[in-house]
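Appendix B. Chain record.
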Amino acid sequence: MRGVFQLQKSYFSQKAIFSLFSPQKLPYTVIGFGILVRLVQYLFNRSLWNDEAALALNIINRSYLELLQPLDYNQGAPIGFLVVEKLAVQVFGNNEYALRLFPFVSAIASLFIFSELAKKCLQSRQAAIIALTLFSTVHIWLQFATETKQYSSDVAIAVILYFILIGIERQQIKLRQILEFGVVGAIAVWFSHPAVFILAGIGTSYLFISLFQQKFLFSLKLLAIYAIWTFSFGLSYFISLRNIASNQSLFKSWAGRGTFPTSIWDFGWLFNAFVEFFHIPLGLPDIFLGIAILAFFSGCISLWFQNRAILLTLLAPILVTFFAAYLQKYPFSGRLVIFLIPFLSFSLQKEQWQFDR
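Structure tokens predicted for this chain:
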């Protein structure tokens, strides 16, 4: 009799395990795995590394008002991020767990929001799961999901902005929507430096589309939203970003790593930066780079025939970031461009989109 009970227990255990990989539950399994990996890394509580420690000293030793001033040790971070970090230290104490809490929470939130975004955009459940799996297992993002740096929250804000703004051209925009979209973007630029590239890319895309379709009234409404974004970014630049932009030590440090092209005609840099993007931050080994790049172009071609508006909104943030690098205003390298991972995850999908025209 005991053997029968053990057999039944084993059967139901196996059935429960297999049910986790059913089409309905697989997205939650992927999210659960992503949370588990990040939680283990967070609880491991490793020591702060150089950049983390340098930024942590600024957060701990300065008042809220002093965080508005240029940071010591050649550090730069969004004001909103610094304020949340300072608050976490005051509430939970001066320790690694408190300093890494906001990046950790941002990483977990990103998984859920990206899952909803994938279901919203992709018709195929399989494609949505593939995109979610790719997004949740990127190595460099796993690393920065539990580090006292702003790169994890950069990803979260990128996903949130795309989730909110995707399909905006299909909405009836009234004064309330103008204010809502405007406030979202206005807040984002205070919490994420590259948020301006996402807003500029998606915003320019929809403005171009509306003008091409001769929806001039809609274009004016978009411009009203963009005016709010521009004002907020200008204020952020005046208070904080201009200090980072004028930091020659920081600029030379990144320029010395080849993160900027030498001239507007430096197409060799453009090619290398594009290929390297699939290596870092996506973390693909060299043997798979060709396949990934082929999948990227295949996905772009597929989207060209399905929905060119979606293709434009996916590629525009990447193109704007490259443009900023050509202006030598933002390094296109490694951890500084992991916020583009959500857009690349979708670009690799050769699947039917929900927003068919």
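Further analysis of this model is presented in Appendix C.
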